[in-house]
Amino acid sequence: MFQNSNQTTHDFGAGLVSAHKHSNGGGWIADTATVAETVYVGPDARIYGYAKIYDNVQISGNAWISGNARIYDNAWISGDAEIYDNAQISDNAEIYGNAQISDNAEISGYAQISGYAEISGNAQISGNAQISGNAWISSNAEITSPNDILWGCLGNFNFAAYKLQNGSVFLQYGCEGHDLQAWEGLHEELAIKHDLPGHEKWTRVAAQAATVLK
Q1: How far apart are CA 206 and CA 70, in angstroms?
Q2: Residues 11, 28 contacting (CB under 8 angstroms)
Q3: In the chain, what is the straight-line distance between the N-terminal and C-terminal CA atoms, in Å?
Q4: Closest listed residue to residue 90, CA positions, set 36, 53, 63
Q5: What does residue 158 show for φ and ψ, rounded to 5 degrees?
Q6: How far is CA 39 from the centre of its chain?
Q7: How far apart are CA 164 and CA 17, in angstroms?
Q8: Angle at 130 (CA atoms; ends 45, 143), nearest 5 degrees
Q9: Which helix (H) or strand (E) holds 201?
């Protein structure tokens, strides 16, 4: 960082840009971003791009906010969390650990996202939903409580099953994600596609477990 008579700059990872330290907490904010004085931005947190943050939001740890992200109300962002693209965080939601929120995902209510969880697509997480571990939630997910999602690890692959906005259940196993009903005809086909002979037994176990969400 260097300073001339009128301007300070900071490197957020892609070269120096005009920036300043926030008056409430001392974290670096790119001049292109909008952050209210009421927002706390800790000294190691970074906000850049065209992010907009208002109200009583608390951002601490090594959190990074970028893109066109919108954060407001009483949301808390901490740890090594990253919020970017067009993601929106509001109400009393908490994002921490190494969680990543991207695309058009919306997190609200008292939802808590932590661990290495990744929320993307048009996912809507609200209520008292809690998502952690290595859960990967995308598509048009609609999760409002812990009862709307199931995740874990089977056969050395992470899986997550969750409800969609149309009421159906979506199952993500490794890099494959499909409507639960469609999985019935895909187990053997996908095992062959990914050269994992016999692995269909694990996707069948995951699919059977996901039926509790119907």
Answers
A1: 35
A2: no
A3: 54
A4: 53
A5: -75, 145
A6: 21
A7: 40
A8: 110
A9: helix 200-210
Stretches where the chain sits below pLDDT 50 are 1-5
Closest C-alpha to 211, from 187, 181, 173:
181
Give the model confidence (pLDDT) of 148-164 as tens digits.
Answer: 999 889 888 999 999 99
Q: Which two tokens stand for residue 70?
A: 């919108």
| Both tokens assigned to 9 | 């700059």
Q: By CB neighbour count within 10 A (0-12 exposed, 13-18 middle, 19+ buried), where does 135 fall?
A: buried
pLDDT tens digits along 176-212:
999 999 998 899 999 999 998 888 999 999 999 999 9
CB 53 within 8 A of CB 71: yes
| Three-point CA angle 187, 163, 59, nearest 5° | 115
Amino acid at 148: D
Does this model's pTM top 0.70? My answer is yes
Name the architecture of domain 35-213: 3 Solenoid (2.160)
Q: How far apart are CA 94 and CA 117, in angstroms?
A: 13
- What is d(CA 83, CA 194) in angstroms, rounded to the nearest whole number? 32
State both tokens at 182.
Answer: 């469609």
CA distance 189 to 27: 50
Tokens 């469609």 — which residue? 182
Cβ pair 114, 174 in contact under 8 A: no
